[in-house]
Amino acid sequence: GAGVSQSPSNKVTEKGKDVELRCDPISGHTALYWYRQSLGQGLEFLIYFQGNSAPDKSGLPSDRFSAERTGGSVSTLTIQRTQQEDSAVYLCASSIDGRPTNYGYTFGSGTRLTVV
Amino acid sequence: GENVEQHPSTLSVQEGDSAVIKCTYSDSASNYFPWYKQELGKRPQLIIDIRSNVGEKKDQRIAVTLNKTAKHFSLHITETQPEDSAVYFCAALKTSYDKVIFGPGTSLSVIP
């Protein structure tokens, strides 16, 4: 696609429910990254994919968080048993050939998750 | 791991004045330092970057400086305009194939 697409753009869920957030990176971008941005806060790294494998998942805050990427393209971030502190904007980014030093990241517009 | 600090957290300047945002990083092996701008409700976008073999880089009204010895780098915006109002994130990267670590951000307001 022309840009990084994320869906849904907004998600309101009840505490304890599971949610799935989707990211469709720019076609041909081999690397995909998930970040979390809480209200008024910075960009917190969650997980990085190179192809379908995740060489760095050090930022996942707990075992309730998981992510996968299939076909070297679409990625899904799953949050199980959501808690109120999970409320944030979840941003996905991709980079050409896995090197952010070339052209930087291209971010999606994010999914705003609200846990009530 | 890498830790990036950023100051100030908020900055207000009069239109036409200069704005300076300062960052420090912890890992001396970091060698690439991008800056991202995030306008309200929009996605972050890369505005300028600098590599460790360069001390300064300019692009029109914005410039970045890097002091590797002190592990400091800064963003300078001259002749600020209202459309410069945004949150600015500095960042550091250690190797080409790595994740970008962002600072906490600076909210810049340019007052007309």
DSSP helix count of chain B?
0
Regarding quaternary structure, what we see is heterodimer
Structural class of chain A: mainly beta
Mean pLDDT of chain B: 93
Helix content of chain A: under 10%
Number of separate helices of chain A: 0
Query: How far apart, in Å, are the first and last alpha carbons of chain B?
Result: 41 Å
Taking all Cα atoms into account, the compactness measure Rg of chain B is 13 Å
Helix share, percent of chain B:
under 10%
Distance between the termini of chain A: 33 Å
Whole-angstrom Rg of chain A: 13 Å
Query: How many strand units of chain B?
Result: 11
Descriptive overview:
- The complex is a heterodimer of chains A (116) and B (112).
- Helices cover 0% and strands 48% of the residues of chain A.
- Chain A is mainly beta.
- In chain A, strands 2, 4, 5, 6, 9, 10 and 11 form a 7-stranded mixed sheet that branches. In chain A, strands 1-3-8-7 form a 4-stranded antiparallel sheet, with no helix packed on it.
- In chain A, a hairpin with a 5-residue loop joins strand 7 and strand 8.
- The model of chain A has no long low-confidence stretch (mean pLDDT 91).
- Chain B is mostly beta strands and 112 residues long.
- In chain B, a hairpin with a 6-residue loop joins strand 4 (32-38) and strand 5 (45-51).
- The chains are: A mainly beta (116), B mainly beta (112).
- At the A-B interface, strand 4 and strand 5 of A face strand 4, strand 5 and strand 10 of B.
Topology diagram in text:
The complex is a heterodimer of chains A (116) and B (112).
Chain A: E1 5-7, E2 10-13, E3 19-24, E4 31-37, E5 44-50, E6 53-56, E7 65-69, E8 75-79, E9 88-95, E10 106-107, E11 111-115
Parallel strand pairs in A: 2-11
Antiparallel strand pairs in A: 1-3, 3-8, 4-5, 4-9, 5-6, 7-8, 9-10, 9-11
Chain B: E1 4-7, E2 10-14, E3 19-25, E4 32-38, E5 45-51, E6 56-59, E7 62-67, E8 72-77, E9 86-92, E10 101-102, E11 106-111
Parallel strand pairs in B: 2-11
Antiparallel strand pairs in B: 1-3, 3-8, 4-5, 4-9, 6-7, 7-8, 9-10, 9-11
